[in-house]
Automatic annotation (TrEMBL):
The lineage of its organism: Eukaryota, Metazoa, Cnidaria, Anthozoa, Hexacorallia. Its cofactor is Ca(2+); Zn(2+). Zn(2+) 2 binds at C96, H241, H245, H251, M259. Residues 113-284 form the Peptidase metallopeptidase domain. This is Peptidase metallopeptidase domain-containing protein.
Length: 288
């Protein structure tokens, strides 16, 4: 008898939980359909932002299936042409805000270049973020530049404190941001935590912007205890990547390359693809 009562009680609890899940928590049969519409809208905006689709043309006039296929090819996914789970998962990962492809046409290749500096001795100005000491940030950015000067022996970088007389300008900002208070707002706003963590302009604009809504540490990772843990981004890895853009490198579809578009933590190691790319721009030049 006792056993029967226990079984009845457990069945009652299970049914009650189903009831709560279905009604008390606001379950709606249309939720899945709404989620599908949200995902589709997000994906179309993503494909435009990263130039798989033209941002200047109506979606109805563009081949969205082909754009999804090109995205899947670039990121090494199974090519289906559909917004499947793996494709959406990849789209929602934190990343660099620079486009992945040339808007004039999609090409799968390794390193891609977007212009270069005419000189080889470059200067940079550093405006600091909120998360680390100025001394640590200065050291990290100096190390990040050294990655590229070691890879292309003709490149040198020196820090300057003159904002108006420098080649590269590094700054941190949130949402609608500029480099320093007197600088015009950037045309490409940040989006808060997650999503875009940084972006940079190709030569010879020289702007490198980091999203100050992100939590940056030197190498990134989970910080704190389990009850108050916080994901941080690697300032070193992100800086090496964004400096690559400022020197003329676009995104690479080689997953081991520093110029791969998605955010990574840890200490970067330049892939041969990165080295080949930077030397295609600067390696054969021997005079200043």
């Amino acid at each position: 008898m006792m056993k029967g009562n226990m079984v009845s009680f457990l069945v009652f609890v299970a049914l009650s939980m189903l009831f709560i899940d279905h009604y008390a928590l606001g379950f709606d049969e249309d939720d899945d359909e709404d989620d599908d519409e949200d995902d589709e809208g997000f994906a179309m905006l993503y494909l435009q932002n990263y130039h798989y689709l033209s941002p200047d043309e109506d979606l109805a006039n563009q081949n969205t299936t082909k754009a999804i296929e090109n995205f899947q090819k670039f990121f090494g996914l199974q090519v289906t042409g559909h917004l499947d789970e793996d494709t959406l998962y990849m789209m929602k990962k934190p990343r660099c805000g620079d486009p992945d492809v040339n808007i004039q046409g999609f090409r799968i290749k390794r390193y891609v270049t977007r212009g270069k500096w005419r000189k080889r001795n470059l200067t940079y100005y550093l405006s600091f973020g909120d998360d680390m000491s100025r001394a640590d940030q200065s050291r990290i950015f100096a190390e990040a530049f050294k990655y590229w000067s070691d890879a292309a022996k003709n490149l040198t970088f020196n820090r300057t404190h003159d904002y108006n007389n420098t080649d590269l300008r590094i700054s941190f900002g949130k949402r609608l941001h500029g480099g320093v208070p007197r600088e015009k707002p950037c045309a490409y706003p940040f989006d808060g935590t997650g999503g875009i963590i940084a972006h940079a302009y190709y030569p010879s604009r020289g702007f490198i912007h980091f999203d100050d809504d992100e939590h940056f540490t030197e190498l990134g990772g989970v910080q704190g205890w389990w009850w108050n843990s916080r994901q941080s981004r690697s300032l070193l890895y992100t800086a090496v990547h964004e400096i690559g853009h400022a020197l003329g490198l676009a995104h690479s579809n080689v997953q081991g390359a520093v110029m791969w578009p998605l955010a990574r933590n840890g200490r970067p190691v330049l892939h041969q693809d990165d080295i080949d790319g930077i030397n295609s721009l600067y390696g054969r030049y021997t005079q200043n």
